[in-house]
Amino acid sequence: KDVAGEVTKVDGGPQDDNAGAAPLVVVENVNKHFGELHVLKNINLTVNRGEVVVIIGPSGSGKSTLCRSINRLEPIDDGRILVDGEELPKEGKELARHRADVGMVFQSFNLFAHKTILENVTLGPIKVRKVGKQEAEKHAMELLDRVGIASQAQKYPAQLSGGQQQRVAIARSLAMKPKVMLFDEPTSALDPEMVNEVLDVMTELARDGMTMIVVTHEMGFARRAAQKVVFMADGQIVEENTPDEFFTNARTDRAKDFLSKIL
Ligand code: ADP
Ligand code: MG
């Protein structure tokens, strides 16, 4: 039942004390350009174990680029990004292994169209984590059950609704036993009636102790699940606060202006 909890075990006894205290993700003085465009401007961000951080901000402010940098889908110009105390290697086999520590769920679900739901979830563990087929399938079924899709395991992605496909995408990421999960606007491509079924799965994941970085404009989710809201604008982190403080008492005009448009 408690599969994600088992994956992310936050306090595993006395010998884990040190590991528990160190932040899980550290972004340190990170800069990135796309040509002339300074897209990430000296970003500093710390995410503790079991913490849920929501990143919000106007379109084009660098939220996706930051997420993509954290699992090295985008190279950074300077600064450091540490996951569980280790800098992600630049390339090679090591990178694939480290990247598997950082689960990522995108706006578009990107499931493999010609593989069943079950195969979508077992593929990564079998190929990258070198898990046996039987074990991978057992774990996959537990995860599919957790996101409420177990009965659809033999179907193909096109036979599922958008909300169901996104829940499969979450299960697929969890199957790699990531240390942290990144969500980049996971509900913004969904029909409104499917948004909550995905947010509910994410909320439960958060409750079970998963460390999460979530780009979303879903304020309800932020208030319910996040410990910290980070407001980005123009490639910078402009404000960082608790959801309550941020939504009721934003400090900067930029944030107030943004909130007035989305609330
Ligand atoms: P957000 O997710 O906050 O909307 P992005 O990180 O997607 O912002 O984009 C930040 C800025 O970087 C935007 O101005 C965008 O046009 C630009 N950008 C993003 N990806 C690329 C790329 N691969 N090449 C050039 N410019 C890019
Ligand atoms: Mg984006």
From TrEMBL:
Alphabetically sorted, this entry's keywords are: Amino-acid transport, ATP-binding, Cell membrane, Membrane, Nucleotide-binding, Transport
Q: Does the keyword ATP-binding apply?
A: yes
What Pfam families does the entry give? ABC_tran (PF00005)
What membrane topology does the UniProt entry give? Peripheral membrane protein
Q: Which residues form the ABC transporter domain?
A: 25-259
Gene3D superfamilies for the chain: P-loop containing nucleotide triphosphate hydrolases (3.40.50.300)
UniProt family annotation? Belongs to the ABC transporter superfamily.
The name this protein carries in UniProt is Amino acid ABC transporter ATP-binding protein
* UniProt organism field: Actinomadura miaoliensis
